[in-house]
Amino acid sequence: MSDIRYKLHPVSAFINFMKSLKELIIPFIVIFGVNIFRDGGLTAMFTGGWVSLLPLLIGLVVVFFSLIIGIIKWKRFVYWFEDGELRIEYGLFVKKKRYIPFERIQSLNYTEGIFHRPFNLVKVRVETAGSGKAGEAEAELTAIRREDADRIETEMEHAKHHRSTPVVMGPHEAQTEISEEVEVPQKKELKTLYRMSMKELLILATTSGGIGVVISAVAVFLSQFSELIPYESIYEEVMLFLRFGYLIVALAVFAGLLIAWIISVILTLLANYQFTIQVDEDHIFITRGLLEKKKISVPFKRIQGIKVSRNPLRELFGYATVTVESAGGSMGGKDEKIRLFPLVKTGRMLSVLEELFPEMEFQPTLVKAPKRSVHFYYRLDFLWMLPLIGVVSYFFFPYGLLSLLIVPPVIGMGIWQHRTTGYALTGKQLTMEFRGISKHTFFVWKKRVQAVNVLQTYFQRRRDLASIQATIKSGMLGYVARINYMEKEDASRILDWYHPVPIQSKQKGQPE
Predict the structure, then answer these.
(1) Which of 27, 255, 356, 469 sits CB 3.0–4.6 Å from 482 for a disulfide?
(2) From first to last of its 512 residues, what are the pLDDT tens digits of the chain?
(3) Which residues, 6 or more positions from 63, have their beta carbon under 8 angstroms from its beta carbon?
(4) Residue 100 pairs with which residues in a beta bridge?
């Protein structure tokens, strides 16, 4: 292995500096906001002597030290290849070392931010099956040249195709090893299977539901300044505004929601621009993004299952979202699920999935839930709804009787869930379909299932019904698919399918 020590690009120092400023922006806004809104505002700050400028001076010192820290982190960060490992040395005040065997590396994920592209650089996230916290990479190279990123892949392939063959000597001779170099395959060509069209991207953006994320982000941001917000003045303004009438208030709320929706559409367009799926013999490569271009690799051997989801609106127009349940790896820096298709037409989705996973059946005939189990799907809802309806009807009579209008939709939702629920066993594959509001179809190989559980309540036992759940390894916590109120015989059939061959049978020479 090479003993050359490689450094990050100098842009890393600036990126580290910007990360520090991002973490300091809330304290800065709070500190300077207090000084701006006090008596005299900015004028008093600049005319009140050096004492009034003290917060500004402290801020400048903090910014200067953040820049120095960013430079020190860049200078102390080095990496090299040795003994089949990627070795990293880093640290601000305390020198740290991290050795990552190439055999443990599951994928190298690339990100091109706005500071990377002008210099043809990439950020490399090293993902392993044992990465620490949720969404946290084993290691991160903030900014390196593309050829350096390719060098890491080459060294990794070289290590995985290099083996040592032990040679057994006589009883009084030392055992030695002969290192055998296996030819390292050339860089594999990527085959493009799917590229999201602009029509699909626009439909994804307008139906993504990201408005809730935008509103939550605004709420979290405002919560940081709760002490500075003049609630009494705002309350008086709101009460004055309400005098204009409910129509004006409704229009104002609609305008606010519309602005939040537009922001969510823009963010979704930027995040999924030019979404592309490519593949080689061992990996699926997903590329997306405009301002920040991301490329992740998903090893086939780490894929545990596939989930196809359809919300009612997308289901009506024949669109679906496909998620890969992977043991290790995430989409970006968070513990996001890896979306193989953020949005795709069902027919186009099936053709790509069949090419990616030819051994899987994506249109099996499902065994549906029995008719006698339909009332189980809405019975529990009535346990808490009926007392609430009774209280509302009694205290707000006669208008409280309008709460009875919620009963038909609840029954209709239960019937809808009942008609969706089903499963299929096709060889070594389990398919489970179920619905909350969105419909989910879950495909998994038998060898990937970690556990199968059969659950029965007292009332289910009386009707010979059971709920079945299958667990696979996915991310940090795993994923559980569950179908409710199936025939007890169906639960036994799935257990028999999953149950391993007894050891005694293997000893008698029976096939596995």
Answers:
(1) 469
(2) 456 899 999 999 999 898 888 877 766 666 665 555 555 555 655 565 666 667 677 778 888 998 999 999 999 999 999 888 999 999 888 889 999 998 888 888 999 988 998 999 999 999 886 655 555 778 899 999 999 998 998 888 887 666 544 444 444 444 444 444 445 455 667 899 999 999 889 888 888 766 565 565 555 555 555 554 555 555 565 666 666 666 677 777 788 888 888 888 888 899 999 999 999 888 899 999 998 899 998 889 889 999 999 999 889 989 999 999 887 655 555 546 789 999 999 989 999 999 999 999 999 999 999 999 999 998 877 777 888 888 888 888 888 888 888 888 889 999 999 999 999 998 899 999 999 999 999 999 999 999 999 999 989 999 999 999 999 887 666 789 999 999 999 999 999 999 865 544 444 444 44
(3) 21, 24
(4) 86
| Spatial distance between the Cα atoms of 440 and 325, rounded to a whole number of angstroms | 13
**Is the C-alpha dihedral spanning 144, 147, 148, 149 positive or negative?**
positive
At residue 174, the 3 state secondary structure works out as coil
* Torsion angle, alpha carbons of 437, 439, 445, 449, to 10: 10
CB 70 within 8 A of CB 17: yes
- Look at the block and give the residue holding tokens 């922006």: 25
| Residue-level length of the chain | 512
User: How many angstroms separate the CA atoms of 74 and 80, rounded?
Assistant: 15
Q: Look at residues 11, 328, 279, 251 and name the one whose alpha carbon lies nearest to residue 148.
A: 11
**How far is residue 363's CA from residue 345's CA, in Å, rounded to a whole number?**
15
Look up tokens 């008093």; give the residue.
Answer: 44
Q: Are 403 and 393 in contact (CB under 8 A)?
A: yes
Query: Coil, helix or strand for 371?
Result: helix
CA atoms 196, 202, 207, 212: torsion sign: positive
Contacting residues for 107 by C-beta, under 8 A, at least 6 apart: 127, 283, 296, 297, 298, 299, 329
What Å distances lie between residue 256 and 43, 151, 252, 288, 317, CA to CA? 34, 50, 6, 29, 28
Strands (E), 129-204: 139-145, 162-167, 176-181, 191-195
Q: Is residue 280 within 8 Å of residue 292, measured between CB atoms?
A: no
Give how far the C-alpha of residue 28 lies from the chain's centroid of Cα atoms, to the nearest Å. 31
β-strands 85-90, 78-82 pairing: antiparallel
Q: Is the pTM of this model over 0.90?
A: no
Q: What's the CA gap between 192 and 249, in Å, rounded? A: 50
Cα–Cα distance measured from residue 266 to residue 259, given in angstroms and rounded to the nearest whole number: 11
Q: What is the DSSP letter of 406?
A: G
